[in-house]
């Protein structure tokens, strides 16, 4: 049995992650379109195993099963025992609300409400005639038939389509609320990452939308910290004088600025590395605004139009978001003591993600709004000049599904446009079909586009 690297499996936040990782790897090889039974005797057919999730939350996302001939889509959670569901606190965790099947090695509880599937033993699986020897999708043969040039162009074009689709959504926001607010809304969103997007959305409402433009532009740092609820009220509880001075500086200014009490913001800290604490993400947002202002799109468009080198332009944009951190370089909160090792608030890899996910779509929307055709054309070149961001779970899972040699193929698809193309194809086809290859339209669509 071939298993994933344990370094990936151990990113899971649950106990016994190593052994559960082995069970997850077994599920990832379970044959599809084969009749099984749940512990209650219901007929179960796995139409799609879902995408292996290496972050917090259910083990496999966006799966599709047939339960007593009823098609159900949702997530899959895998444990050693049925009772682990409650022991791990999933019954009270909204992240697990979309789980449709509990896969276990041992059924040890009578108190369960989800369908439970006992993972077959290896010897049982070996008797299944249609056990797949690999996890390739039906589209793998299509991608394999392309030359390197054709494959790169296909995914770059898909990435540019993704950019256009995202920019259309932002364009609507720009028309409704103005370019400044639309840009800031997108910036707040990406700074929330996955765990605190909702929190940053509330913070945007309680700051950018509540305070006047002039007030926010001048006192954004004090307003953001005050409204966030992350600024302690008492400087005497700080661990050192530097922290006490910083708290006092922000609090004294904030106290004079504050409006009526707003909506309380609940910050998610579960399974989070200290470097990604909400305080550091908020400090990073303040640094980005300090370096770029609250309405930088006009200046960036001029940079696009005036630069002869897309590589130089790409470097300047990314540098606009990098931040070593200052006070926050060796802290994770106001109450934390200094860490021995400093870390940047926004490093090069995270700055690249922000540029790809937020800046370029905003610039594309702004260019269309203002009729900047030269800038719009250069954005497409810039997408290909930007390096590929770090590999995430979507790219990892999709590459294993589509390509015979995933690592070598990703070396070819090594620019921002091509990697965004992987996300686009995965979202439009694999995710839309919940990973069920039999209902995926990619083959038909691809042949109509390429003639192959």
What is this entry, summarized?
The protein has helices at 6-9, 17-27, 84-87, 122-125, 140-144, 148-177, 179-191, 197-207, 213-228, 241-257, 278-292, 297-306, 310-319, 348-370, 373-385, 393-402, 406-412, 416-431, 442-450, and strands spanning 35-37, 43-48, 51-52, 60-67, 70-81, 99-106, 116-118.
Termini gap: 35 Å
Structural class: alpha/beta
Nearest-angstrom radius of gyration? 24 Å
Approximately what portion of the residues adopt beta-strand conformation?
Answer: 5-15%
Helical content band:
40-55%
- The total of helices stands at 19
Order of helices and strands: HHEEEEEHEEHHHHHHHHHHHHHHHH
Question: What is the topology?
Answer:
Elements (H helix, E strand, L loop, with lengths): L5 H4 L7 H11 L7 E3 L5 E6 L2 E2 L7 E8 L2 E12 L2 H4 L11 E8 L9 E3 L3 H4 L14 H5 L3 H30 L1 H13 L5 H11 L5 H16 L12 H17 L20 H15 L4 H10 L3 H10 L28 H23 L2 H13 L7 H10 L3 H7 L3 H16 L10 H9 L2
Parallel strand pairs: 5-6, 6-7
Antiparallel strand pairs: 1-2, 2-4, 3-4, 4-5
Helix pairs in contact: 6-7, 6-14, 6-18, 7-8, 7-14, 9-10, 9-11, 12-14, 12-15, 13-15, 14-15, 16-17, 16-18
Provide keyphrases for this structure.
alpha/beta, disordered N terminus, 19 helices, about 450 residues, 7-stranded mixed β-sheet, about 50% helix
Write up what this structure looks like.
The chain is an alpha/beta fold and 452 residues long. Helices cover 50% and strands 9% of the residues. The protein contains 19 helices and seven strands. Strands 1, 2, 3, 4, 5, 6 and 7 form a seven-stranded mixed sheet that branches. Strand 5, helix 3 and strand 6 (99-106) form a beta-alpha-beta unit. Helix 6 (148-177) packs across helix 18 and helix 13 (310-319) crosses helix 15 (373-385). The two termini are 35 Å apart. Residues 1-17 and 129-134 have low confidence and may be disordered.
């Amino acid at each position: 049995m071939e298993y994933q690297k344990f370094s990936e499996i151990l990113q899971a936040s649950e106990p016994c992650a190593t052994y559960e990782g082995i069970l997850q790897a077994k599920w990832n090889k379970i044959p599809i379109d084969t009749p099984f039974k749940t512990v209650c005797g219901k007929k179960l057919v796995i139409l799609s195993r879902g995408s292996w999730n290496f972050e917090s939350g259910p083990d496999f996302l966006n799966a599709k099963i047939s339960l007593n001939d009823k098609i159900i889509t949702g997530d899959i959670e895998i444990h050693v025992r049925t009772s682990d569901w409650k022991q791990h606190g999933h019954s009270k965790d909204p992240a697990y609300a979309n789980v449709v099947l509990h896969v276990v090695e041992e059924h040890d509880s009578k108190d369960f409400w989800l369908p439970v599937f006992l993972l077959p033993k290896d010897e049982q699986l070996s008797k299944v005639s249609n056990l797949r020897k690999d996890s390739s999708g039906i589209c793998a043969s299509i991608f394999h038939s392309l030359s390197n040039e054709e494959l790169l162009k296909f995914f770059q074009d898909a990435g540019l389509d993704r950019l256009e689709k995202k920019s259309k959504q932002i364009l609507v926001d720009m028309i409704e609320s103005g370019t400044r607010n639309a840009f800031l809304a997108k910036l707040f969103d990406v700074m929330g990452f996955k765990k605190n997007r909702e929190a940053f959305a509330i913070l945007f409402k309680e700051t950018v939308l509540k305070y006047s433009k002039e007030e926010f532009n001048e006192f954004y740092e004090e307003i953001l910290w005050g409204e966030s609820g992350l600024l302690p009220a008492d400087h005497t509880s700080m661990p050192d004088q530097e922290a006490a001075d910083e708290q006092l500086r922000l609090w004294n200014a904030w106290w004079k600025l504050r409006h009526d009490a707003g909506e309380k913001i609940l910050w998610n800290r579960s399974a989070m590395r200290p470097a990604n604490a909400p305080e550091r993400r908020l400090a990073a947002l303040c640094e980005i605004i300090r370096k770029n202002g609250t309405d930088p799109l006009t200046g960036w468009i001029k940079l696009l139009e005036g630069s002869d080198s897309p590589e130089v332009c790409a470097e300047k944009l990314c540098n606009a978001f990098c931040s070593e951190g200052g006070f926050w370089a060796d802290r994770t909160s106001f109450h934390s003591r200094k860490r021995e090792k400093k870390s940047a608030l926004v490093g090069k890899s995270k700055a690249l993600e922000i540029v790809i996910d937020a800046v370029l779509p905003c610039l594309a929307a702004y260019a269309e709004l203002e009729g900047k055709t030269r800038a719009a054309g250069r954005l497409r070149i810039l997408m290909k000049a930007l390096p590929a961001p770090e590999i995430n779970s979507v790219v990892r899972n999709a590459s294993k599904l589509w390509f015979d040699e995933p690592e070598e193929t990703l070396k070819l698809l090594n620019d921002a446009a091509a990697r965004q193309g992987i996300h686009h194809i995965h979202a439009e086809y694999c995710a839309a079909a919940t990973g069920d290859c039999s209902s995926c339209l990619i083959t038909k669509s691809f042949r109509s586009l390429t003639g192959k």
